[in-house]
Design a protein that fits this description.
Blueprint lengths: L2 E2 L2 H4 L12 H18 L1 H5 L2 H30 L2 H33 L15 H9 L7 H6 L6 H6 L3 H18 L5 H22 L2 H16 L3 H4 L1 H26 L3 H7 L1 H10 L6 H10 L4 H14 L2 H17 L6 H14 L9 H13 L20 H22 L5 H8 L25 E2 L1
Antiparallel strand pairs: 1-2
Helix pairs in contact: 2-11, 2-15, 4-9, 4-10, 4-11, 4-17, 5-13, 5-17, 5-18, 5-19, 5-21, 9-17, 11-15, 13-18, 13-21, 15-21, 16-17, 17-21, 18-19, 18-20, 18-21, 19-20
Amino acid sequence: MSVTIDSAAAAPTVRKPPWYRSLFVQLLVAIVAGIVVGACWPGFGAELKPLADGFIKLIKMVIAPIIFCTVVLGIAHVGDMKAVGRIGVKALIYFEVVTTFALLFGLVVGNLVKPGAGFDIDPQTLATGAERIAKKTGNGELPHTVDFLLNIIPASVVSAFAENALLQVLFFAVLFGLALAKFGEHGPPVILEGIDHIGRIFFTIIGWIMRLAPLGAFGAMAYIVGQYGLSALGSYGKLIACCYLAALLFLAILAVVARVFAGVNLWKFVKYIKDELFLALGTASTEVVLPRIMIKLSEAGCSKATTGLVVPTGYSFNLDGATLYLSICVLFLAQALGVDLSLWEQLTAVGVLMLTSKGMAGVPGSSFLALSATITAIGHGSIPVAAVALLLGADRIMDSMRVTVNLLGNCVATFVVAKWEGQLDTERMRKVLDGEDVPPLADADPNSERIRDAPVSATLS
């Protein structure tokens, strides 16, 4: 006797959650509610900042161990020291080319649009600007290039994790992964299995934390609107329009880069990561989506080693949105004060920003510090450093622009480097972005809502 079970009948149906359980819908509602609360009750909205701060701290709490586990497993599975070195070098080359282009592109847009024209600021009115900038930045300063590079090496392994220094954690993870890979087949599998299990535990924790994402986005948006108000949109309308126009044009260029060099349709990818993108926009932070973005990129065909190396490094070396914003702001300040910067002075600004923008991650008020250093380096006496205070009213409104371009810029970088190194599964990437079913990865996200069980076919005799 034989019984055949029809595969179509036996295949489990995909259970789609109700629309109100969609993270995208919840974030959309939370962001709109935050804007309404901030606009109608600004005092109350400004007091909701702890909701956003608490959520961001919860995410940061687990970022370092997730990066460590992801990078170690990725490198250990590659097992090739040279391949890891090639990925790192190619990523740095890509970062430098794209960020330099972003700076030059910002200058071109700033010269054409002239966002500061018509402000006619009197330098004498900027007497308190230096004090305001010092308060905003906590009297801090950006690290010098040598200090920044030396700081990548942690004082100790424990301090790297304790201080949540992502580049230091990444540096140690690379060394640890290479050391494990060196053992090859004779290596202790119990260590790899242990790291794999620990990584799964932390991803499970991330899944729990993400349930609070709408609350964090609501608090962040209510605070921004309540604290800074919507009136700044009118005062800095031309600057805001210029920055967002530049961002849209730059994203169009990124779309071409993604298509030509990696075969990726950026619009489909945006729809694929819409939850993460909305969360980053709502909280004005790309760090909160770092773990989930690494999962999404791996599921879309990028190797774990490439994802683990490129994404965390890009958070310090590939801030496309920030560099675009800074170059436009240099011209805005000059134009607002009626100063005509020469081509040489503008190129000097680009040279300085190429260095200062690399040390911005994690430094309070880093954009103001980078602009202050740039204006000082230009050496134009008609532009006082205190003029940077003119941007205090509009800086937070630019967060959405910076976050969007930074996030998508790093995702495109991961695809390009993976394709360049031959570690991009283009067939899987195409199916994932088209919404087709794909077999699960061996280390799939334990919090994934998708059910990817293969059809069942059995014969009993």
